[in-house]
Fold:
Amino acid sequence: MKKAIIVLFLFTAILTLCMAGGEDIMTRSISVTGNTGRVVFELNDSNAADNLWTQLPFEVEVENFSNNEKIFYPENELNTSNTPLAEGGSGTLAYYRPWGNVVMFYGSFNPNSSLYGLGRAVEGEELISSFSGTLRIEKAEEA
Structure:
């Protein structure tokens, strides 16, 4: 009887692992559309990215900042707990906590303890630098 219970337990555990391995992981992407086209960012799995996702869709003015980034301000601040610090360079989508702005980098940047990663550009990264005026930010359509 004990052998049958152990075999049943092992079979159930293996079946559960196999089924979990076959599940698709849902990725969330946002579309940022401006005067020169559309950039798609794939969001990470963080509280700040979740907060941004729940505010969509909205329209906002984009601003130049420095020589490597465009910024905009979401309506509500983002919760940065469980959010990694931003890394990488061009194509990084980040949140600068002290000012409450979202940053779209089109050049390299220095890491900062107040700059949190939200995701990465997966389409149209080359358009970020030319954005001006009003942006439409919304959940990206599935392709």
The chain has one domain: 26-139. The first helix runs from residue 2 to 21.
